[in-house]
Every structure is written in structure tokens, then in C-alpha cells.
Amino acid sequence: MKYILAIDQSTSATKLMLFDEQEKLCGRVSLDHQQFYPQLGWVEHDAHEIMQNV
């Protein structure tokens, strides 16, 4: 059986959804990641944390 894995990397979380060949949703998960604000109007993310979430 073949599957399709969809990854949505947003500003606040990494979301994954798994579909089967009939496009039926088999599972999903969402993992939040930290946001850092080093200066007013700036936002940063830890690339290592995002890669771990994926």
C-alpha cells in the first residue's frame, strides 16, 4: 500500500497528515515550536527544533 505524507510548516507549529491510496486520512499530528523575540517586531525560530518536529 502507498501513502502520501503532507507536511505543513507554519509559523507556530509543524503539522503532518498521512493519507492512504484512497485519499483517506490515516493520521495527523501537530507539534508546536518555540518563537523567540530578540527585538521588537522580530521573530526567530530554532531550525534544529523544527527539523526534530518533522
Report the mean per-residue pLDDT as an integer.
94
Q: Report the helical percentage.
A: 10-25%
Widest β-sheet, arrangement of strands: 1-2-3
- Categorize the overall geometry: elongated
In total, how many beta strands? Answer: 3
For the biggest sheet, the summary is:
3 strands, antiparallel
The number of domains: 1
Which key phrases capture this entry?
3 strands; 1 helix; mainly beta; 54 residues; 13% helix; elongated; 3-stranded antiparallel beta sheet
What would you note in describing this structure?
There is one protein chain. By secondary structure, this protein is mainly β. The chain has one domain. The protein is 13% helix and 39% strand. It has one helix and three strands; from the N terminus they run βββα. It has one helix at residues 47-53; strands at 4-9, 13-19, 25-32. Strands 1-2-3 form a three-stranded antiparallel beta sheet, with no helix packed on it. A hairpin with a 5-residue loop joins β2 (13-19) and β3 (25-32). The radius of gyration is 15 Å and the shape is elongated.
